[in-house]
Write a structure and sequence with these properties.
Length: 354
């Protein structure tokens, strides 16, 4: 193993095949991300995680599990969590009840995932609800950065109570632009002051609380010509320098359209990974490519990033690896059957009936 395993990849299906096992054993593989296609049942998911961790014990197993329309596992006992906007709406009626419900949502979310062996969910969404984003929409808590921050902090409290780290996204803010960075390259033409004083405020106010951050595949040309996830200005000068953030930084999915052009130049996933790591990301994601051409894009990234390391196009970073390891749970997980009878879990479910 190297002293830095930055790649987070997925596998083809709900069981590991020979190629999946080979890729998980690669020294640059540090994480595994699941999607809905990886779930058949809780027993199957738990076995899949266990097999993956038998290959690499410190593998960080992740999922996009926010609630609402972004929840990968919805059957075999998983609680259907509300979209975060529902918590923002509750805030307008009873702010204190909303904070308690947000903590309950975080606890249920994390406890159920951890009972199956999953380490990290990419939540909360800290984007503000400007009302014009096709991809964010009801995933956002609120338009007001103060409300979004306090509800996110409450959600994070619930996650941490269940022993799960978290990831604020999409820095410095994806809620203002209409375009979806999965299929387009969004541009936010506002100036730095407008963004930092509003959309990015939750990251400043949560600088000592967030365990990880994911930047947006959005370009803010008045600040930098590069999308935020490939920008030293955003990641090093503002997020780490100005805001004082010390946790891990994940790139967003490098297969997304918003990651295919950097500084006006079309790039490969390997080039994008190198650019992201050099800009200040600790980990890079490549999603949904294990089913393309037998996983050829995944192999291209693994081999390409290894070659780029040998050529000194990027440097392995022990601090980045330490930040990855710090995201792994530090407490034992409650088995599912025990969790179902756990008083804190039962109370959290009651609080979600709003």
């Amino acid at each position: 193993m190297t002293d830095h395993a930055p790649i987070v990849l997925d596998v083809a299906g709900p069981q590991l095949d020979k190629q999946d096992r080979r890729r998980l054993a690669h020294p640059l593989t540090g994480g595994l991300i699941f999607f809905a296609r990886h779930f058949e049942s809780r027993a199957q998911l738990t076995a899949l995680v266990a097999e993956a961790k038998a290959i690499r014990p410190d593998l960080l197993v992740c999922v996009d599990h926010e609630g609402g329309r972004v929840q990968r596992f919805k059957t075999d006992g998983f609680t259907h969590l509300p979209p975060m906007r529902r918590l923002g709406e509750l805030w307008m009626k009873d702010a204190m009840q909303a904070t308690d419900a947000a903590s309950a949502a975080g606890y249920v979310l994390a406890a159920e995932l951890r009972a199956c062996g999953v380490d990290l969910s990419f939540t909360p969404v800290l984007d503000l609800d400007h009302g014009n984003s096709v991809i964010i929409g009801d995933r956002a808590f609120h338009r007001d950065a103060r409300v979004a921050t306090l509800l996110a902090k409450s959600l994070m409290h619930g996650l941490l109570r269940a022993g799960m780290a978290h990831c604020g996204k999409h820095f410095p803010g994806h809620g203002f632009v209409e375009a979806d960075s999965h299929i387009a390259a969004p541009v936010d033409k506002r100036g730095k002051r407008a963004i930092v004083s509003d959309d990015a405020k939750p990251y400043e106010w949560l600088s000592s609380t967030l365990t990880s951050v994911m930047p947006a595949h959005v370009t803010y040309p008045k600040v930098d010509s590069r999308p935020a996830g490939f920008s030293k200005v955003w990641l090093q000068d503002i997020l780490r320098g100005q805001f004082g953030f010390t946790g891990a930084v994940f790139s967003d999915d490098l297969s997304m359209e918003g990651a295919r052009v950097i500084g006006g130049r079309a790039v490969s996933a390997t080039d994008a990974a190198v650019e992201a790591l050099n800009a200040g990301c600790d980990l890079v994601l490549l999603c949904n490519q294990s089913k393309v051409d037998g996983g050829a894009p995944v192999d291209a990234l693994l081999d390409g990033l290894a070659e780029a390391l040998a050529q000194s196009r990027w440097q392995a970073d022990a601090d980045s690896e330490a930040r990855r390891i710090a995201l792994l749970p530090q407490t034992d997980q409650l088995p599912w059957d025990e969790l179902m009878h756990h008083a804190a879990y039962q109370r959290a479910l009651e609080l979600l009936a709003f």
